[in-house]
Amino acid sequence: MEGEVGTSLKCEMKGNGKGGVVNESKFPLSFWEIGVFGVVVLSYALSLAFVYLTMPASDYSFLKLPRNLQDLQILRDHLESYTSDYTIQVLVGYCVVYIFMQTFMIPGTVFMSLLAGSLFGVFRGVALVVFTATAGASSCYFLSKLIGRPLVFSLWPDKLTFFRDQVARRKTRLLNYMLFLRVTPTLPNTFINVASPIVDVPYHTFFFATVIGIIPAAYVTVRAGIILGELQSVGDLYDMHSIATLFLIGLVTVTPTLIGNKN
């Protein structure tokens, strides 16, 4: 199985460049694929425009993607006054931005998760983050299935080989393995989203692993959003206790897979 997987991957990579190396002189996307990308971006832009136009006239210069805790606190302070009176618009705007960031692998969703906790509390915040993160991951999955193959081979050839080998070994207990990846930082979530359709992870497995697997980290982050003003850095979110807990949960989820492989 491993030989077949390796051979298949090498053949696909040769199609992108000689000797398994991607040909950098050729743009990895066709005009059709760029068109699909453009349609998706336009859909998100129109959604945000609708939210903006239905909000009251005001100075919205504070509206930008937060890149640090200071930006996030400024955004939180302004949005608090709108959330009670324009709850639907704020929710829709939040969802569109979060899903957009997940779809196109834009860093900073951790700040969006903190914002959910600060604006909506723990339980509603966790539900909101799980919904938007799953929707964004699913959007990224299907977009990658359509146009992502050349980009994945170009950006992560070695990591893709490892991921494909692991998926091939665990076909009978793939859900446990995907849960393990979601709970622990073994592989980046952005890579899992975009590479899963390339290595033939079924969508139903991808979906359930995402919904269940992101709950622990979402809870930790959203709960920290309640005390946003006390945070000094993003590193304060994950102390040794939180990291150890996540790894313990991940070990429990992957144990059935390990036992099955041993048998």
Automatic annotation (TrEMBL):
Membrane topology value: Multi-pass membrane protein
Record keyword Hydrolase present: no
The record's section on InterPro entries has: TM41A/B, VTT_dom
Looking at the UniProt record for this protein, which Gene Ontology cellular component terms does it annotate, in alphabetical order? Answer: membrane
Per the record, the domain of life is: Eukaryota
User: Where does the protein end up?
Assistant: Membrane
Membrane-spanning segments: 34-55, 91-116, 122-143, 205-228, 240-259
Residues in VTT domain copies = 106-225
Name this protein carries in UniProt: VTT domain-containing protein
Species name: Anisodus acutangulus
